[in-house]
Amino acid sequence: MQSDQIGVGLLGTGFARSAQIPALRAIAGARLVAVASGRRQNAVATAAEFDIPRACEDYRQLVALDEVELVVVATPPHLHHPVTLAALEAGKHVICEKPMAMHAGEAREMEERAAARPGQLAVIDHELRFNPTRRRLKELIDGGFLGELHHVQVTVGAGFRHSAQRPWNWWSQKSAGGGLLGALGSHVIDQLRWLFGEIAAVSGSVATLVPARPDPETGELRRVETDDYCSFLARFAPRRDRAAHATVILSALYASGGRNQMLMAGDRGTLVLDGDEQLLGAGGYGAPLADFSVPDPARAVPGVPDNVWARAFYHFAGAAVGALREGRAEIPQAATFRDGRRCQEVIDAILRADEERRWVDL
Q1: Cα separations (Å) of 79 from 13, 59, 164, 227?
Q2: pLDDT tens digits for 306-332?
Q3: Do residues 199 and 238 both lie within one domain?
Q4: Confidence (pLDDT) at 181
Q5: How far is it, in rounded angstroms, from Cα 4 to Cα 6?
Q6: What CA–CA distance (Å, rounded) separates 316 from 256?
Q7: Residue 350 falls inside a structural domain
Q8: Please, which residues have CB within 8 angstroms of residue 147's CB and are 6 or more apart in sequence?
Q9: pLDDT digits (tens, 9 = 90+) for 89-131
């Protein structure tokens, strides 16, 4: 059975204003019908700005709306578990932001509830899987370009927490699920699993390097409870009696010059994802680097911001809406709730490894 329009309800008005909302407005067959936020006034302002018909009191009111078929959960992480369970119980399809939950126990319950409802779409917003250049990267790896993987080196260099004057908000609050490991580390973990398979063990360090930020209302300094720097080592599940390794460094503290990069070395070749979307590869020792980058057609879509996150979400959400219009509850290559739970288990293990100063097996 086909439906011409899929009614979408959005929960969250932070990052969603610059990524999810513009992308959803540009997708043929998607219709944003309702929005809710932790603060009612934010929902009202967002609805007015983007011409969304309903500004709901809370997530319960939103998931109860008949016109909402797909719920996009873009709230802080501590709400992912209750909101997702409520949406599934109401019979809605769900796209849940990452990290999936506060810990693996919550993620496991979400996975089990979704598995009990096979006719409902339940996926995690690891949108980078839908970036065209990263799709090409996976094709090369699956096709044997690297051969047997030796090691991967990942650097995520951002500056959005550099200024100590940036106000304290939920991102600095442990009980809300803030912090860099969950925010960007979850993307790295998902990419490593998607490209190279399961992670078998981790060791890591998680740190808070800007210890206090001004309260937005009083101006008084308030202690930061979450990480703005993280590094970890990972061992992949062994293949042919040996295990490949990964080294990951995440920082949100660059004033300038920070960049994202993934270096991948195998016994046949090398691949370099330089920045977010330039893919270079050499097929043997001494071979010149060839450019395997793929242009992103979403750059030409009016209204979609020209950044990798918004464009990748446009492709991902478009695939979700297309599947639902065709009566399908699955999307090839999308991160499932099982993927989200496995990612959460790696996050939990890194935190445990930091606390106990040791390698932790998964």
Answers
A1: 13, 10, 27, 19
A2: 999 999 999 999 999 999 999 999 999
A3: yes
A4: 98
A5: 7
A6: 30
A7: yes
A8: 266, 267, 268, 269
A9: 999 999 999 999 999 999 999 999 999 999 999 999 999 999 9
